[in-house]
Structures are given as structure tokens and as C-alpha cells.
Amino acid sequence: MEASKVIHAIYTDDDVLMAAVKKVKSAHHHIEEIYTPFPVHGLDKAMGLAPTRIAITSFMYGCVGLAVAIVMMNFIMIQDWPQDIGGKPSFSYIENMPAFVPIMFELTVFFAAHLMVITFYLRSRMWPFKKAENPDPRTTDDHFLMEISVHNNEKELSDLLKETGAVEINLIDKAH
Amino acid sequence: MILGALGVSYGFWDSHQYKTEEDVKVLLAAEHDGHGEAHSSEGHAEESHVEEASHVDAHGDEAHAEEGHKMSHEEHVLHQIHNRPWSALYVAAFFFFMIALGVLAFYAIQFAAQAGWSPVLFRVMEAITAYVLPGALIVLGIAVASGTIGHYNIFIWMDPDMVDPTSDKYDALVAGKSGFLNLKGFIIRGLIFIAGWSLYRHFARKFSIAQDNADDNKNFKKSFRIAAGFLVFYIYTESMMSWDWIMSVDPHWFSTLFGWYVFASMFVSGITVIAMLTMYLKSRGHLPFVNDSHLHDLAKFMFGISIFWTYLWFSQFMLIWYSNIPEEVTYFVTRFQDYQLPFLGMVVMNFVFPLLILMNSDYKRIPWFVVMAGIVILCGHYIDVFNMIMPATVGDRWFIGIPEIGSILLFAGLFIFIVFTALTKAPLLAKRNPFIKESEHFHY
Fold first, then answer.
1. What is the 3-state secondary structure (H, E, C) of B384-397?
2. Number of Cα atoms under 13 Å in the Cβ half of residue A157
């Protein structure tokens, strides 16, 4: 595989970073990745990232949880062994429904929350013992790093990045 | 600029005034027809069966029938028929008053919490709260009139015979509560509540207007302080008001959650009305500084408080259903037997519908979507009040017919008239509020 080159432009301020992202975008360069120490409000919009669909998955997981709760209690309490426990009507699910609502609610929340979190971990590839992908340890403290792929236009790119207020520009060989 | 805003709002109000006044006239006539009908045709037909029945104390609650006030079924039904126009009027009056009071509480919270998004909506909220004083007086007036002019049509405990041990209508339970439930105390408490609410409203409005032309933030600080004080006063009086004005229609029944439950209902309807009025004014071009993020926030409140209402509704219902103590459970038994459709329908309207409609964040920014959800929520909360009052007064003889719709339209007309008149009295953007800049640029 060929060794592709990337430029790492380092910034020290999120406002400068935002302005730089807009400039690089308008010059039609592809931003591979941006590393920041904290969430920068509006960065995803500036980069043109697609909105997340995690809320939709969460809604569906919630529906699954609700279904699980209903099916489970209908089987246990109504069909399998409809005992008379303290005079509660166990003839049909709906008759005893209010007593099941706390469980239905909790399981809905449980499924929606936990499965959504697991989805998030899977989609963002996070797990214990995962090797950190940090190109520069300073980006976890007070620096912002923009990674742009280079297609034989290093000079032009680094000039552009200089202009946007980058404090440091490094050309990196990324051996694949 | 003030003159311009005034002029615009006046033109706006002028076109509205005509509509509402005509509305009110037509509706009043309609309502009187309703009264006449209920009283003359049905009422008199029954009266021929039972002599002097209208003076007998009867009540819709099954508990009373069971506990044996000595009366025939005809007397019972006749009284329910007589109760209906009173209750219809009372439900509608309370519903619109409740909206105004809910908005007042929301307004005070915005001040006390120093919210940065809502100051552009303060004038809209202030206009809605203009209805608190007249609305509350009307509610109290109807309540008192039902006990003095009417034959204890809404609150049976107002009947002095009920606490008179020598009377055959003597009710030991009601007599035991007469330390709290007596007409004099009821009126005095009501007047104290109303005075407190309208004083806060008066001063909050005054400081808000004064802040427009002030050169320091003194008025704002005063607003902040009285808002905090009012919220303390409000949560006590709102709770007591709900015992007095709503829970006591069933003097044999009690619930500790009731004050909160009524609060949730008034709060969500109040917020819904703020959202709907804001959208209406914006669509007419009177609120250029309101953007869809403000709408989004209001819709989030509608969504959240709808769920809060359901939580309280269900908590009250489930605790009583679960333990099933006869003296408490009659409340829900009557509602389940005679009011199945409104009782369960309101849960769908106030919970399932807003839950599914307002969950999506994009939909919360679409005005017609929020208006549609708002209409359903408001209808749902009207039915909520209906469910609180009607089973105790008319029992199974309920119907949403001419008296009910007439009263709704009467008070809707009055409400709209007062609110839009109040809107003309001040510029629609509060100036010099310390948070107004933030609010104008609010973006979510």
C-alpha cells in the first residue's frame, strides 16, 4: 500500500479552529479528522457531518423493552399461573395493568438507555484495552488538531493553514 | 416605536374585539337556551313526579347514594339535572382561569430562574395573566353563587342542613370537616388567594413596564424578589385552592396528591396557551424577535409537563386502585363506570398523543404541528377538569352539549378579549431586561 501523507495543523483556540474549518471547507479540502480536548459547539455543523441517529435507535430499543415487559408479565402473571394474590384481578392483562406499569416503565427506560449506550460504544469503537488513537497528547489538554489528507499539494495546503492561524503544521507519513 | 407597536397591536385587537364580542353575545344566547332547555323540558317533566324536589339535597356521587341520604331516585336525578348548567359554567370558568394562573406561575419561574431564553415572551405571558384576576373572581363568584343563589348545585357542603344534627340530611363526615369547609372560610380563603395572585401579577407587570424606561436594573431585581416570594405563596395557595374549589365537590373524598395534580394540569395548559398565542402573534408579524428555538423550548415544556401530569394522574389512580379502600375508591369507581370515555380518553389526549407527536425534535419547530398538539392538549385538560367536577355534581347524566360548549365559548371569548386587550397596553418586546439580548439571540 502506498504511504499516504497527512497534514496535522495545530490550533490553540476553538474560535480560530472554527474559522479555519470553514475556510478549509470552502477551499474544498477534505478534513479527515479533528481532535479537540472538549466538545466545540457547532463543529459538527461546520464540518458538515450528518446528524446522529442514536435517538432513533433509542426509541426503538425502548419499544423493545416495553414489549419485553408486557410479554413477560402477561405470561408469568396471567397465563402461566394466574394466582389470586391479595385480590388482584388476574383474569386478563388489562385488568391488572396498573400494577404492571412501574415495571413496564422501568424496562422501557432500561432497554432504551443501556442498548443506546452499547450502540454508541460499538459505533464509535470504544472498549476496554482499546489502543488510543491520539496523534498528539496535547489535544487532550489544550490544543486542537486538524488532520487533512495530502494529494501532492503540501505547499498550497500549508499556506492555507498558516493563514487560518495554525500555530504548528506537521507533515506526517501515515504508513498503512 | 412604542406608538408603532401600540398601533399595530391596536389594529390587531380591534379586529379581534369585534369577533369576540359577537361571539360572546351569540354564545350567551346559546347558553341561555341551554339552561332553559335543561331546566324546562327535562326538569319540569321530572318535577311533576316529585313535589318540591328541587329543594332536596342530592348529589351525583355514588357514595352519597350508598350512604343513604333519604331520597328517591327521581329527586336525585332532578338535582343532577339542575346541577348541570352550574357545573358546566364552573368547569369552563375554572379551565380558563387555570390557564391564566398556570402562565403566572410559569412567568414567575422564568424570573426566579433567570431564564435567558424567555424574556422575549414576557409580554405575551403578562397579557395572558391579565385574566387571573377577573377569571379567579368569576370562579369564586360562581362557587359562592351556587351555594347562595342556587341550591348547593356544586358544593353540597354549603347546605347548612348537612351539618345540623337535627336535620334528616345531617352528614357526620361533612359536619366533621365543617371547620374547614364552611362558606365564610371558603370566601375568605378564596379572596386571600386571589389577592395574593393578582398583587403579584400587578407588581410584576408594573416593574416589567418600569424596567423598559429605567436606566438601572432596580426594577428587575424587585421582579426577581417578588417572583421568588410569589412562588412560595403560590404553591401553598394553589394546593389549598384545589382542595377548596375542586376537591370539595366530593366532600367525602380526599387525596394528598390532588394539589400537585391540579397544578400539573394548569401548568401544561398555561404553557400550551403561551406557545399557541406566540405562534399566532408571530404569524401576524408582531413578534419578529421570536425564532423557532423559542418555539422548540415551549414545545419541550409542553411535552415534559404533559408527562409530568400523566405521572401524577397515574400515581393518584394507581395508589387508590391498588389498595382499593372503599372510602377512597368510589371516586374512581364512578369515573370508570359512568365516565369511561372521557376518563380514559383524556389519558390518550394528554399523554399518548403529545408523547408521540412532540418527541421528535424537528417536529417541535413546526408551528402547525405544535398548534395541533396544543389543541389536543387543551381539549384534554378541559376534559380533565370536566372529570374532576362533573361526576360529583351530575353523575351519570353528563353530556358535552349546549351548556358545556356554550360556557366554553363564553369564557373563551372573555379570555381572548381580556388577553388581547392587555396585549395592546404595552410594547410586545420588553426592553432593558438584563437577559433580553441573550433571549433575542437564543438559539438551540
1. HHHHHHHHHHCCCC
2. 23
Reduced 3-state DSSP string for chain B: CHHHHHHHHHHHHHHHHHHHHHHHHHHHHHHHHHHHHHHHHHHHHHHHHCCCHHHCCCCCCHHHHHCCCCCCHHHHHHHHHHHHHHHHHHHHHHHHHHHHHHHHHHHHHHHHCCCCCCHHHHHHHHHHHCCHHHHHHHHHHHHHHHHHCCCCCCCHHHCHHHHCCCCCCCCHHHHHCCCCCCHHHHHHHHHHHHHHHHHHHHHHHHHHHHHHHCCCCHHHHHHHHHHHHHHHHHHHHHHHHHHHHHHHHCCCCCCCCHHHHHHHHHHHHHHHHHHHHHHHHHHCCCCCCCCHHHHHHHHHHHHHHHHHHHHHHHHHHHHHHHHCCHHHHHHHHHHHHHCHHHHHHHHHHHHHHHHHHCCCCCHHHCHHHHHHHHHHHHHHHHHHHHHHHHHHHCCCCCCCCHHHHHHHHHHHHHHHHHHHHHHHCCCCCCCCCCCHHHHHCCCC
Interchain contact A101–B (C-beta under 8 A)? yes
Digit-coded pLDDT (tens) for A47-96:
888 999 999 999 999 999 999 999 999 999 999 999 999 999 999 999 99
pTM value is: 0.84
Complex ipTM value: 0.87
Q: What residues of chain A lie within 8 A of the CB of B310, using their CB?
A: none
Inspect the interface and report whether the beta carbons of B318 and A101 lie closer than 8 Å. Answer: yes
pLDDT-derived band at B393 (thresholds 50, 70, 90) equals confident
Mean of pLDDT values over B311-319: 94
Q: Residue A3: its pLDDT value, please?
A: 55
Contact at CB, B322 and A87, closer than 8 angstroms: no
Q: Over chain B, what is the mean pLDDT? A: 83
What pLDDT was estimated at residue B286? 87
Section B268-282 average pLDDT? 94
User: Which amino acid belongs to residue A47?
Assistant: M
Q: In this complex, do B322 and A99 lie within 8 Å of one another by their Cβ atoms? A: yes
* Whether residue B26 has pLDDT greater than 70: no
Q: What is the pLDDT of residue B20?
A: 46
CA distance A98 to chain B (A): 6
CB contact A105 to B (< 8 Å): no
| pLDDT band of A29, cuts 50, 70, 90 | confident
Give a three-class secondary structure readout of B296-341: HHHHHHHHHHHHHHHHHHHHHHHHHHHHCCHHHHHHHHHHHHHCHH
In degrees to the nearest 10, what's the CA dihedral of B255, B309, B342, B36? 80
What's the rounded Cα separation, in Å, for the pair A133 and B319?
Answer: 53
